[in-house]
Fold this sequence. Notes:
Distance between the termini: 25 Å
Helix content: over 70%
Oligomer: single chain
Low-confidence stretches: 43-50
Radius of gyration: 24 Å
Mean pLDDT: 77
Strand content: under 5%
Number of helices: 9
Number of strands: 0
Amino acid sequence: MFAKLLKYDFRAIGRIWWILAVSMLGLSTLGGFCIRDLIYKADAIESSTGDGLVGILEFAALMLLYFAVIAFIIVTAILLLVRYYKNFFTDEGYLTFTLPVSRTKLYLSKLVNEIIWNAATGAVVILSVIIILLIACMPESGEPVLVYFIKEIVPQINSYIALLDISAIWFVIWILEVLVLSFFATVAFSVIFHLCITVGAIITRKAKVIVGLALYYGVNIVISTASSILSFIFPLWIGAAGVLYSDNLGAHPELLVSLGLLLACVVFALMAAALFLINVTCLERKLNLA
């Protein structure tokens, strides 16, 4: 039954999401050619009226691409939240909660579906950036982009790494930790939004969305304040650790960064788990659609 819940949620979001994703990739291709043309014809606007018009249109296309990326992310989030709200807190909720499935599994299906679509959205955005870079950086000589990247870009990256005097393995570790941190942070913020909507539905029956948004706004202020404090404390922690443990951690600042990222992963994982349990408890014991 859990697999069927995922399938129906997946289909409901996919009908619109795929259109957005394909449009995003198409705009990225167009944006890549616009950037390439602007790079190799930097004086296009000044050369003639016709070329100037082309340059203006290309710049407008890049602005459209920028707003398209933002819109793609926002619309995906709205689709997921509307699906959660309609299935649980509108007339559909009466039917949803009569299914022979516990409310924990019902909510878990929504959360897993949201994680999948958020990951897919992030992958499309990354792929769009790669498409833009591949087209924009394509050499005029006609040399394959991959060959050009290996010959020209990779040595530059290696030189920057050499200047930092840090082993490349640490960059791999940091990237993996950032990916794990992004996953737990995405889950945590998704559960926060779900919890705010759930609490809003418990508090009132007429203005559930407004109350939920107000709660999320308040929680977001608290989280932003806490993040600002932590971003200030983290460098101080690295510096203090470097002084106190100069023979061990202080001699390896890359290890301190890795431990900091690992600590952030643990914090977001615990926060996501705690909020998940609170939301499930609210759905099972507090929510009453009657």
